[in-house]
Specification:
There is one protein chain. Helices cover 24% and strands 33% of the residues. It has 257 residues and is α+β, with helices and mostly antiparallel strands. The strands form four sheets. The protein has a six-stranded antiparallel sheet. A four-stranded antiparallel sheet has the order 5-6-4-9, covered by helices on one side. A hairpin with a 2-residue loop joins strand 7 and strand 8. The longest helix has 17 residues, at 12-28.
Length: 257
């Protein structure tokens, strides 16, 4: 059976990488640590590796609610602990009485340091508290170079994972109908855009599906997909419930500003 038939064509390279990691563990009989993974990548790994085989996998991103996590592939004899994931956690100290800092600003500043996105985990913000996770290999560099976000001077305070704030992800559920599962159609119906506007946003690179920029308006969505629209928010495909009598798809989505 062709393993790729269960996945999207654009996921083939990542699937090959996962299979390569698993084979490396078999050959070397030693654990393999990945960079930070997005939820879709983690799901692909779970589907490929499964449970009870000769290679096992576990994930950690700092907290149960972490979205981006590192994975460890390991042989049966090995039991990973938190230190094995090599993650450093920080809380920002800044003049919170005079300024506010949002997720977009933090991520933008971190990316401006010249490191790839896979080196960074989640960013957690609750009120004036701003925290984030990074790979330990870059932690000293981040501490030395992250001194300003927007117009605010900031300082990185190392923290333990026990101090990570509990940010609850909430989705406002709503039901929509769409003539197809194409990205442009679902976006238009989900956020009350015209189809032309949704196509324009996709063409401009302002729309991501499962953390990957998608520029094809005909990209077909599946259940559990997360759509991010820059400047608008996120949409999660919670359920695809079949078709109406008028041959339209019934879709339950979650909206997150």
């Amino acid at each position: 059976m062709d393993i790729y038939q269960h996945f999207r064509p654009e996921e083939k390279d990542f699937i090959d990488q996962v299979l390569g990691w698993a084979e490396q563990v078999r050959e070397q009989y030693a654990p393999k640590l990945t960079d930070f993974l997005n939820p879709r990548e983690a799901e692909i790994i779970r589907m490929l590796i499964g449970k009870g085989g000769d290679v096992l996998v576990s994930f950690f991103g700092g907290a149960d609610h972490a979205e981006r996590k590192r994975a460890i592939f390991y042989p049966e004899y090995y039991t990973p602990d938190e230190e094995d994931y090599e993650i450093a956690f920080y809380q920002l100290s800044y003049p919170s009485k005079f300024t506010t800092i949002d997720h977009r600003q933090v991520l933008g500043t971190l990316m401006s340091l010249g490191l790839k996105r896979e080196m960074y985990g989640d960013i957690w913000i609750e009120g004036e508290t701003v925290q984030f996770a990074v790979a330990k290999t870059i932690s000293a560099y981040v501490e030395a170079n992250l001194s300003k976000i927007g117009n605010a001077g900031v300082k990185c305070e190392p923290i333990s994972s026990e101090r990570i704030i509990a940010v609850k992800e909430t989705w406002k559920e709503t039901a929509i109908t769409s003539s197809s599962l194409r990205l442009d159609n679902v976006v238009a119906n989900a956020v009350s855009f015209s189809r032309q506007k949704s196509q324009m946003l996709i063409g401009q690179g302002r729309v991501k599906v499962n953390h990957r920029q998608i520029e094809s308006v005909s990209y077909e969505l599946k259940q559990e997909d997360i759509i991010s629209i820059r400047g608008t928010g996120r949409i999660k495909v919670l359920a695809i419930e079949g078709k109406t009598k008028k041959d339209k798809w019934k879709i339950v989505i979650g909206l997150q500003k």
